[in-house]
Structure formats: structure tokens, C-alpha cells
Records
---
Amino acid sequence: LKPDLKTRYLGLDLKNPFVAGPCPLTGDLESLEALEEAGAAAVVLPSLFEEQIEHEELEAHRLLEFGIESFAEALDFLPELGTFNSGPENYARLVVRARERLSIPVIASINGHSPGGWVRYARRLEDAGADALELNAYFVPTNPQMSAAEVEKRYLDLVAGVRAQVRLPLAVKLGPYFTALPHFAGALKEAGADGLVLFNRYLHPDIDLDTLEVVPRLELSRSLEMRLPLRWIAILHGRIPLSLAATGGVHEAGDAVKLVLAGADVLMLASTLLQHGCPRLTRLRNGFAAWLEEKEYRSVEQAKGSMSRNHCPDPGAFERANYMKALVSYTGRLV
Ligand SMILES: Cc1cc2nc3c(=O)[nH]c(=O)nc-3n(C[C@H](O)[C@H](O)[C@H](O)COP(=O)(O)O)c2cc1C
């Protein structure tokens, strides 16, 4: 009997847990179609950045000011504002087109770091027909005066601000650097989140030794990285009523299986698709289904979370005690 691959994420019924995560492939209509063809259950579009939105607001404001000073000219000018060729408007168009061309859910993504007027663009994306919204919250605290509680509050205000704008299901994509993630996850739920996407993979800047410049370096992930979401999804599963998406290091079918056993509702793929192309998704989905079948799981729902901290025979394995075992497994002894 073939296992039932259906899963639920953010209240959406998905045909399997494989989602194309935000990356350049999901920003292009042709590759979006190829991803659907390959079996993706949903797609997350690349993020629209707070800076892009604010830039447009500034430009629009300038035009309006100009308009007030010379009213006659403004009359000719203002109608064009509606079709202003801008980041947010282009993005909303991408949402509309993706919805027209695909039959799977289309999740829009906004990247933001500060609460502000820009969050009302979330509604624009809801109006454009997005099935859900992912808030890619990226904030690197550098101020020594700012406490962990203040950092968390900033995220919570951001989530509450977006939630006040939309009724759409809302996922929050977080970085891994939180002191007390389970508590914070509960607070995010209270602020209006429906799910977490774990984790945002920060791009750490590098120093170019020839030019002595700080440069961004984009490198694709490796399978090993999935252990980070694996641990935290296993710890969170079944304890806070939030959907859980795993992102980071899913390259093989086995990576996907492990994350679902830990409790992930969906797996988001980026690097492996960029490396091998959209058909890679079919291969992962088939390998995943074959594993479930071989181990006689009837469904994804049956497998989901069966190795989470709540359910696995050795919950301590996800905690610190494991460190000693790991050391012994590496060196063959403790010291
Ligand atoms: C080229 C590239 C562009 C990306 N753009 C976005 C983005 O716009 N928004 C976002 O939330 N994540 C973005 N990501 C992060 C991925 O969605 C994903 O979370 C991360 O790469 C880890 O997953 P992976 O190991 O499958 O690559 C991007 C990743 C890559 C490699």
C-alpha cells in the first residue's frame, strides 16, 4: 500500500510535505511551473524587503510633495502613481501571476526588521491572492544596551503589526539565535503567528583580504545543516500549537524523513534545487515515499513527530547529555 503523503501546514491541505522555499527559482514563473510539475506541494516566493517597500514610499512621497507645489503638473502625474513600477507592485504582480499559473498554494514572503507603516503592504499581498504569508524576520542585535527581552519584543511587535493587517495564515521565519526558543515560540503564537519556519540561514559576511572590504558570501547549504532544525523541531513538536516548517540542509530523501520524524509539517528546499534543478524535488519526494513504504508507515501523519522529544524513547538525546555520548563516539573515550 502506498503511504498517504498529505500534510497540513498553516491550515493549508498539502499533497505532500515538499515545498519550494524562497529562492531565485520561486521568483520566476517558468521555474515555478517546473516546481509544480516536479511535485512541489506549495511554493514560497522570494522575500519582498522592507527596504524595497520603504524606498517606494519615499519615492511616492517625493512625487506627492512635488505635486503639491505644482498642482497642474501633478494632475498629469498622479494617475501614474497607481502603476508605479516599483518593488512592491512588481511583487504583487508576481503573486497574481503565480496564482493564475499554479494550482498549488502560493505563499508570499516579506522580509522585515522593524515595526512600521510598511507592514500594511502585507494586505496588498493578501489582496493579490497569496494563500499565506511568511514573515522573514531578520534583525542582528548589535547594541549592547538592548536586552534579549527587548529583541524578542521587537519580533513580537512586528508579528502583531503584520497580524493586524491580514487574516491570512502567517508563518514566521526565524534565525536560530534565541536564548529560550520554546518560550519565545509560545509568545509568537500569542502575537498571531500560525507557524514557524526554522531556521533562517544568515549569510555571515566575510573579509576580502585583497581589497580589505567586508563582502557578502553566498554559499549553498550541506546536509549536515539539517541537524539544527532537526533538534529544535523535535523539541517544539506537540508542545506549542504552531505549524513547523524545516529549512536548511534538506538535500537527500533521508534528510526529509528525519525532519518529519522529528515533527516537521513541511520541508522547504532551496540549495538542492538550485544545485540540481527542479526535478530534484521529485527524486526527494519519491525517496521519502519509498522509505515510509518500506518501514510500513501508512501516512506522513503517522510518521510525523514519532521521534520528537515528546515521543522518542530517549528525550534526553535532544538535550545536553548527548554531548558526552557524541564525544565518546568521536574519540572513543571521554577525556
Ligand atoms: C540564492 C538564495 C536566495 C534566497 N532568498 C531568500 C529570500 O528571499 N527569502 C528567504 O526567506 N530566504 C531566502 N533564502 C533562504 C532559503 O529559502 C533557505 O531558507 C536557506 O537557503 C536554507 O535552505 P537550503 O539548505 O535548502 O538552501 C535564499 C537562499 C538562497 C540560496
Note: Residues 21-24, 46-47, 109, 136, 173, 201, 218, 220-221, 247-250, 269-272, 274 surround flavin mononucleotide (CB under 6 Å).
---
Amino acid sequence: MTLANFVLFVHIVAATIWIGGQITIALVVATLRGNPELIRLVARRFERVAWTAYAVLVITGIINVSNIGVAWTQLGQTAHGRLLIDKLGLVLISGLAAAIHSFIQAPRRREAAPGRSFSAASAVLGGITLLSALGAALYGVVIANS
Ligand code: HEM
């Protein structure tokens, strides 16, 4: 077992938390519908875990890049580099959608309609977060196997 193996292992565990967490929280929110207080409590705890996982993904991802020998200055010039550019686009979309939901859309909705436990905007942003993270994971597998 090399250090690179361990970093990749941590990267994969963080990906399972980021992706699996989105699925779990969606199911929990659907189950707790009608109980906005409880949803808020669970969501707040979940957010801490999810953002930690995202930070770990970025840090271990940067180490993975150097471990597979891709130079940041020549991303467009190698097959690995081009796959990485696509993957990073998806990582950015996933993080941005989650950030808009966590820090802008959900707090505003909470203020405007404290008694409501469902919002279509939250579902759309959650869907974008999950799908783009799945895409990033698929690109990760392709990069690792090419
Ligand atoms: C939503 C965020 C992310 C998810 C879900 C994700 C997921 C994954 C997965 C599942 C793998 C496959 C590992 C394998 O098959 O062995 C992987 C590999 C990889 N990821 Fe990520 N990743 C994310 C973010 C990042 C970031 C931000 C970077 C770079 C800064 C990155 C760089 C890499 C690289 C270079 C590999 C290949 C490593 C190797 O072949 O040794 N990832 N990723």
C-alpha cells in the first residue's frame, strides 16, 4: 500500500459521503415532510459533514492529480488532463449548486415561509448537486482506469 493508494482511498470515501449523503438527506427530508423544525435540525448537521467531505475531495483530488503525473499547466494537452478539465467542471457545478442551496436559497425560503417543508427550488438544486457529483465520480473512474 502506497501513500497514493491511501490518498485515493480517502478521496473515494469522501465521494461516498458527498454522494450518499445527498441521497440520504433527500429520503430523510421526504420522510419528515410536515415537520420543518426537524428537517432544519437534520439538514444543519448534515451540512457540516457534507462540506467537510467536499473539502476532503478537493484536497485529496489535488494530491491525486500530482500522483498521476498531470501538470496543471498542461491540462489541455494530455488525455488525462482533458478528462480532468471536464471532471472539474462537474465538481464545480456540484459544489456551486450545493452552496446556493445551503447559503442562499434555503435560508431565504426559511425566512419567507418558515412553516413550509418542501420547495421545488431545493429539489432542483439537490438534483443538480447529486447528478453532477455522480458525473464527477464517473470521470474519476475513467481517469483512474485510463
Ligand atoms: C464531487 C467531487 C468529486 C467526486 C465525487 C470524485 C470522485 C472520484 C472517484 C469515484 C474516483 C475514482 C477512483 C478510482 O476509480 O480509483 C476519483 C478519482 C480521481 N479524482 Fe476525484 N472526485 C471529486 C473531486 C475531485 C477533484 C476536485 C479533483 C482534483 C482537484 C479530483 C481528481 C481525481 C483524480 C486525479 C482521480 C484519479 C486518481 C488516480 O487514478 O489515482 N477529484 N474521483
Note: Residues 79-112 form the longest helix (34 residues).
